[in-house]
Amino acid sequence: MLDAYERISEELNQAPWFGRTPDLTRMDALLDELGLPQANTKNIIVTGTDGKGSVCSYLHSILGRRYKVGRFISPHLEEWTERITVGKDDISKEDFARLYVKVMEGAKKACRVSGEMPTVFERLLAMALLYFEEQGTEWNVIEVGIEGHYDSTNLLPAKAVVVTSVGMDHMRLLGNTIEEIADAISAAFRPHAVAVIGKTDPAAMNILEVNARRKKATVYRYGRDFWYDGKFLSYSGSLDFQLALRGVHQWYNASAAIQTVLALSSTELNNIDASDIQEGLREAFWPGRMETVRENPLIILDGAHNPHAAQSLRTSLDLLYPGKKWNIFFAAMKDKDWRSVLTQFLDLANHVYVVRMPYERAESPETIVEFLKEKGTSSSVCEEQDVIKCDEDALVFGSLYLVGDVRRLTRNAVHSF
Q1: In what residue span(s) does the Mur ligase central domain sit (predicted)?
Q2: pTM value?
């Protein structure tokens, strides 16, 4: 018999990810019913195509050295509870179940106004806000959902908004060009708040800055106001730092986090000093991103699932493992541009194993194998369990669902991490 948390997990797996209409009515009605959000909450909103989770992890770790900090992220890799964190601890399964019941009670009443029940993301965001209120957090680091004008986080007050990057993903909702996507992501900027624009396409940066300034935000732009060249640099000074997270792109993600903290330090974060930033960055961990889960033979997991993230992964592999060939384990969702993702790694492949995944959204492995045959790449279909049976160095990417499943399998295998 399933316990309350397991029943709720099953319900969330079956619940709608998108509403019938793209608007904020559902979330607005739900927040009103629950008495949220509180106007005095100090939130930092993190948006962008890739790097959101890493930047959230950096900010959470830095601020957590001096303040009680809540963090809300998506998606999770293994458990729903990973999405809501206070301090160093994820929400317990008992509290998760309790708050889900409370939110759904409010949702049924709010439905009379909105006409439909909240989506999965909206339910979880409401739960996070309730939990942060109960725990008395001083700051919250909140990752957006799908970005754009109708992201539920747009209803929350914020002291700062960080745009990590702009790439080709979620085009059905955000637009078909970099410029259109940047314009949609700009909806996250808050009037008179801090706006930090991370390293990304120059055309996107121009659009982001124009839109931020229209809201009279204080803008800090990578490459002009701050940058990375072996250390964090800005016109106000420099900072050496080390990271536990691997990957070239992490230097830029960390730089955006540093700039956010510095921008707020004069008024909002006056307890944070340079050592807090350095120690926070050194201690920050974000699973499933260039993560080694087995040393010998090697298994590396990465959540790269769009062309922009794939390019970052490829750059990091070329730097850290120059000329190395891999047994690639790959899977993807149907709605992702998996062909552009996979093509970037074909010259690194000894063989590509296309993993069959137990998810309705997953692309058929036979379809991917057919594509690889056309490219002249050796490939075959395998099961998730086959990843940990591989006796040669393996690279696993293409889907966060795959990464989460392999993490679980690896932890349960003889090789622990």
Answers
A1: 46-259
A2: 0.92
